[in-house]
Amino acid sequence: MRLLLLVATLCLSAGTAVAADYSAAANFTDCQGGTDKGCLFQQNVLKEQWPQALAGHYPSQRNVAFCLADGCYGAVRPDPIMSCAWRIVIMASGARELEKSDRDNYLMACAASLSSADLAAAKKSAWDLFYAIYGRTPS
User: Fold this and answer.
1) Distance between terminal CA atoms of the chain?
2) Residues 6+ apart with CB under 8 A from 3
3) What phi, psi does 74 have (nearest 5°)?
4) In 3-state terms, what secondary structure has residue 14?
5) Bridge partner list, 45
6) Alpha carbon separation from 136 to 26, 73, 76, 85, 130 (Å, rounded)
7) Quick check: 7 and 19 in contact, CB under 8 A?
8) pTM for the whole structure
9) Residue predicted with more confidence, 11 or 131
10) Per-residue pLDDT tens for 23-56?
11) What residues are paired with 28 via a beta bridge?
12) Whose CA is closest to 65, among 36, 34, 101?
């Protein structure tokens, strides 16, 4: 619950009312009634990664983007638009760690798989996320 309040605060302070879009908890599946240990493990990993990603931690941002793209072995519902949004944030961050795979992942998550309307939604979410994380618009 504290995580949801933090995320909501970050998003509202960024001037956006779409805090639910950033709530990792909203994307969790039920892990087949809680019996799949691998799924539960992946959920716990994402619960740890999510606030770190929102704090600007590059590896965590990559992990969140990956989980939103493929579902992390059934732990979360895939969300291609938010996966693309995170890939845009990663590319716009200018992190020293950026590598060729980040560009490839961006192209795969955004350019190759989203409609123009979904890409526009991803870009809007990415700018909102970027502002919530870094306190400024991308340069």
Assistant:
1) 33
2) 24, 25, 47, 50, 51
3) 90, 5
4) coil
5) none
6) 26, 34, 29, 16, 7
7) yes
8) 0.79
9) 131
10) 555 566 667 666 678 888 888 888 889 999 999 9
11) 76
12) 101
